[in-house]
């Protein structure tokens, strides 16, 4: 009888040591989701500050925009020192805008010119004659393409003629392509000039100076060597 009692006591102790309540590991997930949904539905915290501007993303995340220190300092305490700091900051910002605008303008001109050149030359870029027609030249537009080489005395003389036409005959669209010049040297010309970048090869130019003309009558001419102003203008009449 005593042994039977001890066996039941051992079983009861074992049950007390190894028996646990049921643990549901997925119960908390549902609770967390409900909590997150509750938080997402709440209005974002309003930030009360003279300079802070809350920016709320589509996910509900709130970030704060604060103006640069130079702006805050100048508006809070407008004195000569803060005004100078503000002007310097603003000048740097404006210079970036100007540079960006110049680059955009340059790229736009490059794209437009490339489009026009392709239209002019897509039929037969190496075929120029004293007479003929090109059906895809823009009606009523005169084109003059001038090719020059650095160190060429005749090119320098011809460039003066091109400059005269550029200044006095706005009805003629002039594009100048140069070889051997740096970018800052091209800026010294009064007409718009750019690096050759293979354009002379496209037009099959093998001597300098050279001029390609497309007039509004859809006639095309190719001139090599020095040509005076009057003879050039006759091609556009």
What can you tell me about this protein's structure?
The chain has helices spanning 2-18, 27-41, 69-76, 80-121, 153-168, 183-186, 199-202, 229-234, and strands spanning 53-56, 62-65, 142-149, 172-179, 193-195, 210-214, 220-224. The protein is an alpha/beta fold and 237 residues long. The strands form 2 sheets. A 5-stranded mixed beta sheet has the order 5-4-3-6-7, covered by helices on one side. Strands 1-2 form a two-stranded antiparallel sheet. A hairpin with a 5-residue loop joins strand 1 and strand 2. The chain is elongated and about 75 Å long. The termini are far apart. Mean pLDDT is 75; it is low at 1-6 and 123-137.
Topology:
Layout lengths: L1 H17 L8 H15 L11 E4 L5 E4 L3 H8 L3 H42 L20 E8 L3 H16 L3 E8 L3 H4 L6 E3 L3 H4 L7 E5 L5 E5 L4 H6 L3
Parallel strand pairs: 3-4, 4-5
Antiparallel strand pairs: 1-2, 3-6, 6-7
Helix pairs in contact: 3-4
Q: Reading side by side through the largest sheet, how are the strands ordered?
A: 5-4-3-6-7
Structural class: alpha/beta
Mean pLDDT: 75
CATH topology of the domain at 142-234: Glutaredoxin
In the CATH hierarchy, what is the superfamily of the domain at 142-234?
Glutaredoxin
Largest sheet: 5 strands, mixed
| Assigned CATH architecture of the domain at 142-234 | 3-Layer(aba) Sandwich
User: What form results from the Cα inertia axes?
Assistant: elongated
Number of helices: 8
Question: What does the radius of gyration come to?
Answer: 40 Å
How large a portion of the residues is in β-strands, by DSSP E?
15-25%
Could you tell me how far the N terminus lies from the C terminus, measured between alpha carbons in angstroms? 136 Å
Q: Please bin the fraction of helical residues.
A: 40-55%
Name the CATH class of the domain at 142-234. Alpha Beta
């Amino acid at each position: 009888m005593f042994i039977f009692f001890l066996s039941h006591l051992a079983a009861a102790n074992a049950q007390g040591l190894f028996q646990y309540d049921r643990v549901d590991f997925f119960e908390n997930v549902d609770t967390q989701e409900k909590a997150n949904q509750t938080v997402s539905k709440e209005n974002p915290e309003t930030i009360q500050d003279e300079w802070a501007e809350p920016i709320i993303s589509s996910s509900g995340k709130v970030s704060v925009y604060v103006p640069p220190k130079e702006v805050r300092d100048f508006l809070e305490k407008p004195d000569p020192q803060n005004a100078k700091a503000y002007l310097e900051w603003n000048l740097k910002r404006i210079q970036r805008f100007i540079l960006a605008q110049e680059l955009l303008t340059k790229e736009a001109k490059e794209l437009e010119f490339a489009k026009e050149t392709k239209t002019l030359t897509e039929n037969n870029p190496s075929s120029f004659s004293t007479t003929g027609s090109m059906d895809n030249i823009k009606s009523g537009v005169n084109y003059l393409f001038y090719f020059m080489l650095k160190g060429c005395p005749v090119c320098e003389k011809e460039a003066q003629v091109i400059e005269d036409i550029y200044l006095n005959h706005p009805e003629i669209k002039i594009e100048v392509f140069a070889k051997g010049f740096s970018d800052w040297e091209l800026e010294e010309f009064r007409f718009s000039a750019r690096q050759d970048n293979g354009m002379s090869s496209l037009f099959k130019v093998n001597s300098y100076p050279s001029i390609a003309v497309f007039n509004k009558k859809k006639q095309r001419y190719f001139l090599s060597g020095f040509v005076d102003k009057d003879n050039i203008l006759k091609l556009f009449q």
